[in-house]
From TrEMBL:
Name of the protein described by the UniProt record: Membrane protein containing DUF161
Organism: human gut metagenome
Location of this chain's protein in the cell: Cell membrane
Keyword annotations of the record: Cell membrane, Membrane, Transmembrane, Transmembrane helix
Membrane spanning stretches: 7-26, 46-72, 79-98
Amino acid sequence: MKKIISSWIGIFVGCTILAAGFVYFINPYNLVPGGVYGASIVLHNLFPSIQVGTFGYMFDIPLLIISVLVLGAKLGARTIVAALFTPLAMNVLSLLSYPSEEAL
């Protein structure tokens, strides 16, 4: 039981650290990594009224559905929770962040 709880805590902490990295270091300076969140940052710059995490959901949910159809239902609850918690953490942290105009 302790191992299961520590595993879930690790997932939530890791997702929060990933989200904080995007919100505090990547998004403010218009750095664009690859993948789902890189595309989300590009779309956020085109449509600033929609948060990066919301675009992340727009990409993650269809990809999760396709992966369950292709790979089967044994994809894992941890994968689904992590894919859905990361954009949520990004949206929450972006509400808490102070926008800085200074360059690195």
